[in-house]
Structures are given as structure tokens and as C-alpha cells.
Amino acid sequence: MGRVWNFSAGPAALPQAVLEQAQRELLDWNGSGASVMEQSHRGKRFIAMAEQAEADLRELAAIPDDYAVLFLQGGATQHFAQIPMNLAGEGDVADYVVTGHWGEKAASEAAPYVKVNVAASGKAAQYRALPPRETWQLDPRAAYVHYTPNETIHGVEFHEVPDTGEVPLVADMSSDILSAPIDVKRFGLVYAGAQKNIGPSGLVVMIVRRDLLARHGRPMAKILRYAEHAAAGSMLNTPNTWGWYLAGLTFRWLKAQGGLAAMAERNRAKAELLYAAIDGSGGYYRNPVDPAARSRMNVPFTLHDGALDAAFLAESEAAGLLALKGHKALGGMRASLYNAVPLEAVRALVDFMRDFAKRHG
Ligand code: PMP
Predict the structure, then answer these.
(1) Active-site residue 123, yes or no?
(2) 3-state secondary structure of 67
(3) Whole-prediction pTM value?
(4) Exactly one of 29, 56, 95, 196 is catalytic; which is it?
């Protein structure tokens, strides 16, 4: 089988042009006679590539100079723990807005390092809707407010950045980063595991307001401190060189696609097409999320009869539609529509869904 349409939630589809370039350059990168993975991160070639990747990301996301860009490791999960260590002192409170599985996890991993105040939660609504901003019980003394703009499993997304006044807003953008323009100034810190919209797993991209790096929360090893990573250009130790390189290729690809405004338009069109197919199926397919909070990136849906799930998965896979199985917490299906998934893939999916419904009516 050749390339399929890949709806994986993550690690997820990468742009084909990026993979092809990486393939072309694999054995002899940049005239060096070796792959990018086989050379020093302190060499001239790698440093130039790394700086270009950062510059391209800064241009794409219009990142102001008073923000540092870090290329880190540990997955988003490690930073669930490391963010409170860096941004909060002993005994400080931090607000968590929990709107799904990943927000829950962020709060629980933070709990050993900061007093977690769950300022709002969508749990009572089974994470199918967002708690309205006016109901949030924010603590004015909080070191920061943490939220998850897009919940990858529950498929709920904030379509506006919440206002938290002077308290820095921290966003886990693992599953929505670079899917639309971002107003960086609204945030204190943005972080994302790379494996959905940026590149391979094992890389975390962080954008952090420099003044927050001066908050030396508590005694800790240098390797855990973001200020040290920033001072060392994210080369305090050996970075994920392969991930950084692929991220750089993706940033360049995004620029060639017209940047984040163009991606936002495509992502909107893709999501609309799929939700319209679900909503227009007469109940054959269902998405349980409040329409105002539906995710453009992750679309969970169920079939009217769960007994058809196995057939749906087997037939979709045979039709070249990969990874539609839903997360085990919710069951059913999920289609992830990250930047690298083209409109053509979503067309193929909705055609398949209509055809399946006819055949298994
Ligand atoms: N946050 C979100 C929103 C995610 O979707 C994920 C992974 N699916 C994570 C955090 C955890 O990321 P990692 O596996 O990189 O630690």
C-alpha cells in the first residue's frame, strides 16, 4: 500500500513535501556527506539550520522579541510538571481550567509543585462544552492560569483566547499550535509537543515571555530551568536534532502554504465539511460536542449503532483512511485534521462515510 490519508491524533501526518525533502537529504544533508542526525549540534551547519528554524517560526507566528523560543524534550507531559516548577514559588497557587483529559493531566502533574486551583471544569458536562468565562473562579494571586485551547481526546476547542488580566496565561497548544494565527502577546507561555502540527515526537516547542524566565521558582537542577535553556539557545545538552530539523522543514512548508492565516482558512473548511457530513447524516453519525466549542483539529464521532464500529474501521482502512479509531476513553471514532491533512483527505472521508451509511443502512 502507498501513502494513505492519515487521521491519526498523534504522532500524526506530516506534510508529504516535508517527508520527501527529508528523504532526499537523508544520506547527504546540506552537502555535509552525512545525515543531519549524524552530526554535532554545535557544528556550523546545524546551528545555522536551528537558527533559521527559529527565525521561520518567529515570522510565521509573529513572535515578539520579548519572547524566547525554546526547542525542548520530554513531551508536553514533562512540562506539565516543569511549568509550575519554573513559574511558581513554593506555596504559590496556580489556576487550572480543565476542559478535558489533557487539562486534567496537566493539573495532576502540577500538583506536587504548586497549589492547584481548578478555576473551572467541564467535567460535569462530560467535557462536551466549555465552562463560560464568567463562571471561572480565578485566584487573583495565582502565579499563572493554565488551560488547554484544544482538547485532543474530547474534541473541544476555545475559539477565543480567554482574558486573565495581569495573570500570565499558559496554554498547552499541543494539538492546535500553528493551525491558525496566534496573538502571542496574549500569552505568558505557550508549549506544544511537536507530534501533531510540527514534526516528530520527542520535541517540545515553547514560546515564553522573557520576564517570566526570571521567576526562579525554587531550587532545581539547571536542566529543569527554562531560563538556562533560553540562555543556552536550547543547547544546554544535546537537543533532538532530527526533530528540530523536521520542525524547521515544516515551518518552511507552512510559509510556502501562505502562513497561518491560509492554514486557518483551510482548517476551517476541512472541519466544516466533516461536521456537515456528521450533522447531515440524520443521526447515523453523531458528534456530542456543543457546536460552539467544536474542535477544528480533532473530531470525535460515534455511529448510531456501536456494533458497526468494527466494520467501519476495517472498511475505512481498506479504503486508505488510516487511524479513525476513537480514543479508548470515548470509544467510537475520531478524525484528526491537523495542518498536514489536506481537504482532499476529508473529502475522501466524508464520501466513505456516506457510502458506508448507505451500505449498512
Ligand atoms: N497535551 C495535549 C493537548 C495532547 O494532545 C497530548 C498528547 N496527545 C499531550 C498533552 C501529551 O503529550 P506528550 O505525549 O508529548 O507528553
Answers:
(1) no
(2) strand
(3) 0.98
(4) 196
Q: For residue 95, give the H/E element and its range.
A: strand 93-98
Ligand 1 lined by 152 (C-beta under 6 Å) = yes
pLDDT in tens, 7-54: 999 999 999 999 999 999 999 999 999 999 999 999 999 999 999 999
Q: What ipTM was estimated for this complex? A: 0.99
CATH code for the part of the protein at 17-256: 3.40.640.10
Which helix (H) or strand (E) element contains residue 121? strand 115-121
| Homologous superfamily, domain 260-359 | Aspartate Aminotransferase, domain 1 (3.90.1150.10)
Q: From atom 12 of ligand 1, which residue's Cα is the shortest distance away? A: 76
Of 172, 244, 253, 270, the catalytic one is: 172
Q: What three-state secondary structure class fits 248?
A: helix
Is the bond preceding 11 in cis, omega lying within 30 degrees of 0? yes
Question: CB pairs under 8 A, 24+ apart, for 240-244?
Answer: 240/71, 240/73, 240/202, 240/203, 241/36, 241/37, 241/39, 241/41, 241/46, 242/36, 242/37, 242/200, 243/71, 243/194, 243/199, 243/200, 243/201, 243/202, 243/203, 244/49, 244/50, 244/53, 244/71, 244/203
Residue 282: Cβ within 10 Å count: 8
C-alpha cell at 186: 496574549
- Top mutation candidate among 98, 108, 152, 240 for ligand 1, by most atoms within 8 Å of CB: 152
Instruction: For 204-234, give the DSSP string.
Output: EEEEEEHHHHT---S---GGG-HHHHHHTTT
Q: What is the pLDDT of residues 183-221, one digit of tens each?
A: 999 999 999 999 999 999 999 999 999 999 998 778 999
- Cite the residue boundaries of each domain of the chain with CATH code 3.40.640.10: 17-256
3-state secondary structure of 198: coil
